[in-house]
Amino acid sequence: MKIIVQKFGGTSTRSIETREHMYKNIIREHDKGNKVVAVVSAMGRYDDPYATDTLLSIVHTDQLTDEEIDRLTSIGETISTLVVKSELAKKGYVVDTVTNGELGILTDSHHQNATITTVEGKHILDKLKNADIVICPGFQGYSQNGKITTLGRGGSDLSAVAIGVAIDANEVEIYSDVNGIYTADPRIVPDAMKLNYISYSEMLELSKNGAKVLNHRCVQLAAKHDIVIHARSSFDENQGTYVLGDEKIMKDHLNQFIISGITGSQNEARITLVGVDAKVNGAGELFEKIADANVNVNVFSQALVGGGRMDISLIINDKDVPAVVEVINDLKETLQAKKTIVRGNIGKVAVIGVGIKNNKGMFQKVYNTLMSHDINVEMTSCSEINISCYIDRDDVKRAQVLLHEAFLG
């Protein structure tokens, strides 16, 4: 039995017209003789009646616990499963649904952004014995104590891959309003090109560095279990982009470009501690406290400046600035910094591709392209497949255009 998992977001479920496109994709696989498990999101966006943000808007969220908010926000996906089943069944197909408890997605108790601990597909597989199509609610799971949990932003992508792992699906198709993964955001870079294939590692770097097509946690899970992801459009039948194992990409030379993508973000901030006492392990204690505050440090550098002092700089998400400043203030006596400089309005542009590690001069080309166009590079980070430059927020879009032209023009 060949099983295809298909995930459909709010742009697919929001109206009768958009759902008809969704049904064409489901029926196409059904007519090929495949079993289909469709993972659906809530219907639409604010202020569509059953969208997640609409549900949140009708309550006083500050009066609800996180567990109660998860119960509320999971309702939109449950409504979608029943609407989709009723409409497909009316067309004559044998369709079933699963409840939250039957999903088999067990999580921790971190409500609103739960982490999946285990998945099992018994209930879904049992239903597929009698039904050709099974509809599942996305974005949710349940904790050890049986409470509904939600998986955070992009959680339906993660749900789909988790279900694919649990039922040993042949492929997971992620549908959206774009027809694949591009070398850059076409809204920013008009000359961006669609990729036919991309490796897990490249897709993960793109997702973590600002690309919105796939949730990075779903890519991680797919890579761990070698599940093929097909990112494609709900509104046409053309092939999208396949996300595959790095080994297959390299073996079959599926990606025709040295660079797979250029992406950017505009939500960074830089904090510099000037003249920290270098004789104590202040940096170690600083990062321990930052981690305790659930803050990720994107880039870190330290430099001795003489006189037993050093400067420490770090790049973080701008929303985390208050938490990090609070940590720094708590460690004032330990660090003995002469001053703390907070620089907002930082952005990032990233050049990503497996070809970086095998081609010399890549960093030089990135750096010189930006600096020659009067874009100042404040900090950088590099790996085998990622060169990231931190620049002024207002320059991020222009930087993506310039780098795309330099590498892929």
Briefly say what this structure is.
It holds the Pfam family AA_kinase. With 409 residues, the chain is of the alpha/beta class.
Task: Set down the secondary structure blueprint.
Layout: E1 3-8, H1 10-13, H2 16-31, E2 35-40, H3 52-57, H4 66-73, H5 75-90, E3 95-97, E4 105-107, E5 116-119, H6 122-128, E6 133-137, E7 140-143, E8 148-150, H7 155-166, E9 171-176, E10 181-182, E11 194-195, E12 197-199, H8 200-208, H9 216-225, E13 229-233, E14 241-244, H10 246-252, E15 261-277, H11 282-292, E16 297-306, E17 309-317, H12 321-330, H13 332-335, E18 339-352, H14 362-371, E19 379-382, E20 386-392, H15 396-408
Parallel strand pairs: 1-2, 1-9, 2-6, 3-6, 4-7, 9-13, 12-14
Antiparallel strand pairs: 4-5, 7-8, 10-11, 13-14, 15-17, 15-18, 16-17, 18-20, 19-20
GO molecular function, one term: aspartate kinase activity
Keywords: Amino-acid biosynthesis, ATP-binding, Diaminopimelate biosynthesis, Kinase, Lysine biosynthesis, Nucleotide-binding, Transferase
Catalytic activity: L-aspartate + ATP = 4-phospho-L-aspartate + ADP
